[in-house]
Amino acid sequence: QQPVQSPQAVILREGEDAVINCSSSKALYSVHWYRQKHGEAPVFLMILLKGGEQKGHEKISASFNEKKQQSSLYLTASQLSYSGTYFCGTESQSYSGNTPLVFGKGTRLSVIA
Amino acid sequence: NAGVMQNPRHLVRRRGQEARLRCSPMKGHSHVYWYRQLPEEGLKFMVYLQKENIIDESGMPKERFSAEFPKEGPSILRIQQVVRGDSAAYFCASSPPGRGLRRTEAFFGQGTRLTVV
Questions:
Q1: N or C: which end of chain B has fewer CB within 10 A?
Q2: In the predicted model, what is the mean pLDDT of residues B10-21?
Q3: Residue A91 to residue B102, Cβ atoms within 8 A
């Protein structure tokens, strides 16, 4: 039930791009992306709803392929501030309409100068 | 508008004691979620509550753990007879009323770091 994230960790130089993937074995209604810095609370980045929407947030964008139950987070021209652990949280389809987010194990991103 | 408030930020308990973790959701939010995070691991769902109701507790251990979200006051996660394996960061998140998290984000508190000695 827990979504699978890949890669587990990645190291980038400033200005490089990265893609973080999140896949689920269950039919998804939405995918949420968060970033957590060490010792801090997870911070919301974006939400993607069923329908293959692609959302953007400055130089961070994401896509959601509902047929494959996959989402990808794209970080372009990375900055030092992008360092942290990225989590995808998935919400499965439910007739009740009330389901909690189930998070992947995270992808640790380190951006170096 | 204050964010999600959790207290205490750090809690040390001896084995066998009780731990009480509090979470005040953002103003206007009626959905509360508790997650546990072990070092270098992801966020593991524990329980989902609305005011006076437990909606989903599929992630809660069967024994020693309980949660409530009363009509008035914060949500409480209670761990009885703590053991060393309970040491972790416990995060609370809240979201506005509506159909759960389908269209809105969950806002996380700063967490309570529980250490059992």
A1: N
A2: 98
A3: yes
